[in-house]
Amino acid sequence: MQLALLVCLAAAATAAPQFGRFGRPYYDGKHIAILSQSQEGPDGPRFRYAFQTENGINVQARGTPGSKGQSNIDGSFSFPFPEGGTGSVTYVADENGYRPDSPLIPTPHPLPAHAIEQIRFAESQRRFG
């Protein structure tokens, strides 16, 4: 009997809604309408799509041929913050990897001058050594 009760409690805990960063459910069951949507392709590596939702999410992307037959993609997305304001990211994904750009992405502190000098010295040693 105790084992059955323990299994039921574990199942209930697992089925409970999972909550995100701001204490809101990741998905609250509410339908979010698509206000606009467009799509072209795909035609090989070429494609284009965009959509906008009623809760303020905007997405767009475009694919073009890459040097090795892949799709090089450039695009952007934006979304509303629960506390107000909007976050946005633009990106490129190509032979050089995925490169997002946004004020939301943390950046490291600049290196001090002595560290930069050490890096230069190490690189020069590698070239000549």
Short description:
This protein is of the alpha+beta class and 129 residues long.
Describe the structure.
- The protein is α+β, with helices and mostly antiparallel strands and 129 residues long.
- Helices cover 23% and strands 39% of the residues.
- The chain has two helices and six strands; from the N terminus they run αββββββα.
- Strands 1-2-3-4-5-6 form a six-stranded antiparallel beta sheet, with no helix packed on it.
- It is flat, with a radius of gyration of 24 Å.
- The chain starts with a helix and ends with a helix.
Question: Main traits of this protein?
Answer:
single chain, 129 residues, alpha+beta
Query: Biggest sheet: strands side by side, in what order?
Result: 1-2-3-4-5-6
Q: Percent helix among the residues?
A: 10-25%
The low-confidence runs, each spanning 5 or more residues with pLDDT under 50, are none
**Oligomerization status of the protein chains:** single chain
> What is the count of β-strands?
6
| Biggest sheet layout | 6 strands, antiparallel
Share in β-strands: 35-45%
Protein topology:
Elements: H1 2-15, E1 34-43, E2 46-53, E3 58-65, E4 71-80, E5 86-94, E6 97-101, H2 113-128
